[in-house]
């Protein structure tokens, strides 16, 4: 299937159309059209549909337990609100916004299936870790990423009395919980407010660091796997919601409050020394406020926007310039999609169309970035 990919902004397309007509008077409209089509297809990214869901369902636990029956009864498929995604090997992981009818905030599914029926959502790593009445379980999963050694890092905001945590699962060792880091009070101001959103992993020569946004405080949180410690780097007068790390691991790109269009960056070395401050730099302004960003290994930053049915891109090696990358079949949902990159340079994306009980979802994939050969 060839997707409706629009590579250039409308303005740019208009000006190119103009020059195609005025610049070459001899070119007939027919050839001009072919010329334009060629330009588009040369750069087109083909998204392939992997699955399509009319309705989500969970892989329910077995047994005749009353609480299982209750959970099934309470489940509202239309309340499934996909937030963040990560992919490793043959599995895809999704974090779901918690509502009363949603029994597990972190699920996995296979990246390909034998049958034509779309897969059910399997609570990850088990139903046991999704009992909301206990603080040592996963409360509200948000940002996630898989590291190069097959570990899934999941940011759990916590809820009510349960503090925010960072979970690390070993996907190559039966999905065992390798680490649960509880962010201490001196880092996260639980007494006032906290909302942990997004995470980006940085593999250094001898460690893995995680950069984390907490949208209620003027800082960036850093966690070191080696020392199992987290620290806070102040960014006076600026709070952050979403982030993406450059492939050379020198710049962290940041979006502030919900709906903010302004893109900033901070120098990664400034984040590494604990307890300091970091200077932020204004990079440019998007057409709309992004709710998700990531950068592939060819330095292309992808951004998706609140209430918009398109994804934009920007080559971070060049001055800021937003270009249209892809349009989805959305009918105006608030956050109509989510995306993730796997280690093979495949961009995985879910998109939602329709409202309420008519909501449908698709999983798509496309090759992006610089691949070997
Ligand atoms: C990436 O490629 C490897 C080797 O071909 C394959 O084993 C792996 O499953 C692929 N990963 C994904 C997410 O498709
Ligand atoms: C995030 O967690 C904090 C406590 O750790 C809680 O006060 C806040 O309500 C949570 N926010 C959301 C959106 O879950
Ligand atoms: C995973 O668990 C199974 C069953 O408990 C066990 O047989 C297997 O050895 C474990 N694999 C690893 C890599 O630990
Ligand atoms: C990004 O920009 C750099 C510098 O202009 C260029 O060399 C590179 O080819 C561009 N990357 C892509 C994927 O277009």
UniProtKB/TrEMBL annotation:
The keyword Secreted applies. It holds the Pfam family MRJP. It is found in: Secreted. Keywords: Secreted. Its main location: secreted. Residues 1-23 are annotated as: Disordered. Coiled coil: none annotated. InterPro entries: 6-blade_b-propeller_TolB-like, MRJP/yellow-related. SUPFAM superfamilies: NHL repeat. One of its GO terms (cellular component) is extracellular region. Belongs to the major royal jelly protein family. This is Bee-milk protein.
